[in-house]
Amino acid sequence: xxxxxxxxxxxxxxxxxxxxxxxxxxxxxxxxxxxxxxxxxxxxxxxxxxxxxxxxxxxxxxxxxxxxxxxxxxxxxxxxxxxxxxxxxxxxxxxxxxxxxxxxxxxxxxxxxxxxxxxxxxxxxxxxxxxxxxxxxxxxxxxxxxxxxxxxxxxxxxxxxxxxxxxxxxxxxxxxxxxxxxxxxxxxxxxxxxxxxxxxxxxxxxxxxxxxxxxxxxxxxxxxxxxxxxxxxxxxxx
Length: 238
Ligand SMILES: [Ca+2]
Description:
Elements: E1 32-35, E2 42-46, E3 63-68, E4 74-82, E5 87-100, E6 117-124, E7 137-138, E8 149-152, E9 156-158, E10 162-171, E11 177-189, H1 204-235
Antiparallel strand pairs: 1-4, 2-3, 3-11, 4-10, 5-8, 5-9, 5-11, 6-7, 6-10
The protein binds calcium ion (CA).
Calcium ion binds at residues 8-10, 57, 59-60, 62-63, 183.
């Protein structure tokens, strides 16, 4: 079962509720846009009639795109997902890029080449919403020029019951067309990883085991203090 809401980026695209003043910013329902740095790319739905016709959609009748012209950007969308505590998950999304210094919509290249446009998928197993957080574990980047590729996140265990799926587009050169298209996000729960964190099962036996461990650790610390105290008395006589 795919736990991601609106995985195919369909339905009526919306202006972000927290930034209604932003122009050219339409996001698929259930997804949130993000960008890093001073440059906000434009966001809207890709349609089957966009050139090259039929190539901008992977599934259904729309795909999320973000883009700008003669500029660079780092941004994308994210979604916070609820999963079983302890679940081992990975996620994928389909991505396609048109990054071109020319105008041929079927060719990422042109007189000055492409913008070196990379797509990655990351997971924050703590369910945060900051793409720059060190908690986000990113997968390998791909360069899906003029084709649809499946982009993978790493496998991550989620002990908080939530994780956040980040999708990132990042380009190096400000070529004429830096456009990213994404579609068909999928969450996979990996068998064997669905174990809760080691906090015991709440039984008296598990509590006894835990308390015994704590007592052993405390006695070890007390022994070390005794040694330190004896040494201190010897080194610094009163
Ligand atoms: Ca779609």
